[in-house]
Amino acid sequence: MDDVVARLDGVSHHYGSRIALKDVSLGLPAGCMVGLIGPDGVGKSTLLALVSGARELQQGSLVVFGGDMARPRYRDRVSPRIAYMPQGLGGNLYHTLTVDENIDFFADLFGLTGPSRAGQIQRLLDATGLMAFRDRPAGKLSGGMKQKLGLCCALIHNPDLLILDEPTTGVDPLSRKRFWDLIETIRAQQPGMSVVVATAYMEEAERFDWLVAMDGGEVLATGSPGALRSRTGTATLDDAFIALLPENRDDRELTGEASVAGFDVGSDSQAVPAIEAKNLTQRFGDFTAVRDVSFSIRKGEIFGFLGSNGCGKTTTMKMLTGLLTPTEGDVALFGAPLNARDLATRSRVGYMSQSFSLYGELTVRQNLNLHARLFHLPKQRIEARIQELVQDFDLADVMDQLAGALPLGVRQRLSLAVAVVHSPELLILDEPTSGVDPGARNRFWTMLQRLSRQDGVTIFISTHFMNEGERCDRISLMHAGEVLACDTPQALIEHCSGDSLEVAFMETLEAVNQEPEKTGDGVVLEATRSQPVSRRFSPRRLWAYGRREARELLRDPIRMAFAFLGSALLMLILGYGITMDVEDLPFAVLDQDQTPQSRDYVTAFSGSRYFVEQTPIASMEALDERMRSGDISLAIIIPPGFGKDLKRGRDTEIGVWVDGAMPFRGETIQGYVQGLHYSYLMELFQRTYGVAPSLSLVDVQDRYRYNQDFRSLDAMVPAVIPILLIFIPAILMALGIVREKELGSITNLYVTPVTRLEFLLGKQLPYIAFSMVSYVSLVVLAILVFEVPLKGGLPTLTLAALLFVTATTGLGQVISAFASTQIAALAATAILTILPTVQFSGMTEPVSSLDGAAALIGQFWPATWFLQISRGVFTKGLSFSDMHRDFLTLAAFLPVLTLLSVTLLRKQGR
Amino acid sequence: MESLGNIWNLGLKELFSLWRDKVLLVFVLVAFTFMVYTAGSAGSMELHNAPIAVVDEDQTVLSGRIINSLQQPWFMAPELVRFDQIDQLLDKGSHTFALVIPADFERDVRQGKPVSVQLDIDATRMTQAFIGAGYIERFITSEVAEFLAPGSSTAELPVNLVSHISFNPNLNGTWFGGVMELITQITMISIILTGAALIREREHGTVEHLMVMPLRPFEIMAAKVWANGIVVMLAATLSVTLVIQEWLAVPVRGSVALFLLGALIHLFSTTAIGVLIGTVARTMPQFGLLLILTILPLQLLSGGITPRESMPQLVQDIMLAAPTTHFVSMAQAILYRGAGLDVVWPQMLALAAIGAVFFGTALMLFRRHLAI
């Protein structure tokens, strides 16, 4: 067992219906460099994630360092011995944080302290040459430096097993070489350390001790690179891999260069170039993505752009397609200046963007069909063209599958088919082959060459594979926004000391290189063993997450401004807008009497502040009509002979029609009408007999408490504060966690010793603090702008607010636990919180008056209780002891919500 | 013609995409069924189950009758308390009203002496406070009159007031809450769906893909508007017929078809707002904040929660630019008052005009956004 660091037995893994690993049994030897080779989507990443503990084991058994990884307790204990660097440039890093802050974060998570911590950080920064960049945000580092920083963070705790998932994909050759040199150095100093690496570059795999070739979720072969080559009888690993593929794979085809007629450079040099770029420059703010790039591509040529990720390839291509307007410089397509609005030019160009620009939720047929229609192929041609493409690109078997479910190689063939559906004269392809296995890449190039040579299509392609560059007619070497060299591959190779494009590129880069060399004495890691890490609740880890989140929040000024100004603005709008005073109601009179007496009666209404008189009603039909249109909410009908009857003391009758469409308003109007009617009668008696009659035997003395003037603001403003303190904190919190899921940094929760509780509380703290600042601004607004008197104590209110925003951010956490995309989290928060808060929390009517589910929801909604307290403090001047029940209820939400989040949040990916 | 074809084809694609996002669809379904039903069955702002406490220092037949008259559905069964408990009850907020019937109340009434009762009201409960006080006053007056001379409570005043309530004779809140919630959901869901569709497209990089095809921004946007509009339309139709008419049994007076036509015009502007927000917001958190910023005023100030007439003139004027204002007044007119096209055409016109403005603005921004 000693020589095996990890052993898999019958391990299978699937995502939904897609199988990632199929019954894999494998032992990874300890103390050496193990390489996983194979194209994207064959299960390499899944395997590494399982070994690191980032993903939950579904089937089979997995033993790492002699213990069962399916047991959470063991996994917790062993996780500090493992370091995992996920796929993607800086996948475990936080891009707005600086180099120092990133490293500090990881050091905190692993509980490093004192001089050993400082020493460790110092040595790592020295070895990677990042010392000079300590204050630079991770997002602004070059790809190679990001990967080195990722490595620093992974190595901070002296792991015994280092797992690297495609650490050099998309990094330029020079940085790649330095990265591997660094790993060699570390391994030489730490001979006991095991390293497991996945890679897509076969040249790199040559350096590894032991290889696992994978395809379709299965292990094809294992052994040293030499063993694999000799077993297959091939000269290169690329070919060895292809030979290892099962017989029935259709792309089993050797890379032997298909003989292709060279491009005749001289023949039509007079002709108009397909693309002509002059001095293209693109700036984003103070960052120059592309600087002074010029080139000219002749018709029918295959022109390659070689460079690392982030060197400006994509930006340049976007300028050529009109997606970006160059800051400086000109582009001419087919001899005419590029006009982004010109639809005719667009139909001569095919573009395949870096992210496979297909609709994954449509089938292959639907995708082809949609694009054929959007390019306006004649209806009768569509079917024939699709058949042609299916033939050419070999898609017949997958016609009715969803594009998103296809293997990468097939998806990329489909992308190309889609890009040429309208037979364009110019094809612009942005890294079409990244992540595709060597066989499929080879087929792809054969297709490109056929398009270029047979159909005369001009092809402009970008790639970071050097061996693809060799198949272009001409290439540009690009680095940091600038073209370093531009010539035929042969010419470039002749100029350099080696015999490959890789060497040529590396030498060109070295000439302009600004990437730092390592400094310091060379010892990277102390030879100490990693220390055991406490699994008990650690305030330090909680604080590490809290501080990190706060920094991120503070560096997003737009989000901050939105949240602060937004809540202040909403407070103003809602505070003034929502009013329970029912006033200025439109009414009209159908006066069939037309005497001074009838007009006198109407004055009682038109003179009050509740009603505004509209033009009189002409007839009963008109009354119906005007009520229906909502033109008036009250109609008064004065019968003929009203004045006469009144004078003679005969009983008479006034009819009123009240609009009941809005029940609350209807009730209020009824109340007003009755009041005005009685006061009219009183006045009438007073004038007629000189005394006021007692119409009622009982005098009901109304004492309106807390808000004597019935000022709507005083009642509404304290209610608006809870509303605003629920939506914004809940949404920000929910997105805060889901974002980590989408960006991949959630992996740090999976593979570091941080517990779920520390993670949740740590992330919650900054949002609570943030919401409390928002609370202060709302209270200031309420007191100063709305002049709502604060009768009770501010500390009482503040304590309640603290409990409340903790509960609302907790609510956001619960939502984020089950939502996996930001859109779903947003929709869920909006749909689930707005209705209960606005309607069931007692803002307009007390919870006790609600029925059914609403009453239940109201009781179990934090806003209900904070609203109670807010009104209590503002308008009633209540103290903590008067409302201890509300406080207790509000406080009871906190453990429940946190417990729910902890239960719902997973400590491992699926 | 070509343009129409593009809009149609892109819209179909939009529908396929939405169909695959099952989580979102579930939320849409919940919003249009459960949420509408809960809001409808919640009872509403009219006097309903108002909590009242009574201090009966008289303990006589008359005081008993008065207490009995305060009953469901207007009041919860009155709770008998001691005088010194009143402050505490009102402070706690457990009761909105506290009525004090003094000792010797019945005796004084019999002797024709002027009597008075004290009614304490929590005025922060603005909706209940005013309406409830009126009810209590009327109940007490008629109980006392009936007590003195049975049958006299209907005695005629010199000028009798005959009140009729149009459209909703019992002032039943169920009729109101459900429909208003439906309007909120139509507005909110259409904005979320359209905005999310745009952001999803941006995340997947397919917006760029569309922009290099011979398509105009107008076509891309129009496709989003019609496709997402139609989904909300479908959900709204279901909600009106099934939830509102069947489950909540709200008698709809006007034509449902006319209401849906109005909803369609309304959707034109809300989906445009969705595109607008989706264009302005760069990230999802920004979209979320903008959404809240938009949706709350649209919902709370439309006239669907509190009467429009009572808002400050400035707010009323500003809210004229909001589609919900017109949609709410149109929906009330059609569904409750049975108004026809002859009555609601101005609102429809306003909705269409607002929609056109929002659509135009969104298109302009969308174009500029894509050009960057």
Tell me what the structure shows.
- The complex is a heterodimer of chains A (910) and B (372).
- Chain A is α/β, with parallel strands linked by helices and 910 residues long.
- Chain A has 32 helices and 25 strands.
- Chain A is elongated.
- Chain A starts with a strand and ends in a 6-residue tail after the last helix.
- About 1% of the residues of chain A have low confidence.
- Chain B folds into 2 domains: 243 residues, no CATH class; 103 residues, abc type-2 transporter like fold, CATH 3.40.1710.10.
- In chain B, 66% of the residues lie in helices and 8% in strands.
- Chain B has 14 helices and 5 strands.
- In chain B, helix 2 runs antiparallel to helix 7, helix 2 packs across helix 9 and helix 3 packs across helix 6.
- Strand 25 of chain A pairs parallel with strand 4 of chain B.
Quick summary of this structure?
The complex is a heterodimer of chains A (910) and B (372). Chain A has 910 residues and is α/β, with parallel strands linked by helices. Chain B folds into 2 domains: 2-43 and 171-371, no CATH class; 52-154, 3-Layer(aba) Sandwich (abc type-2 transporter like fold).
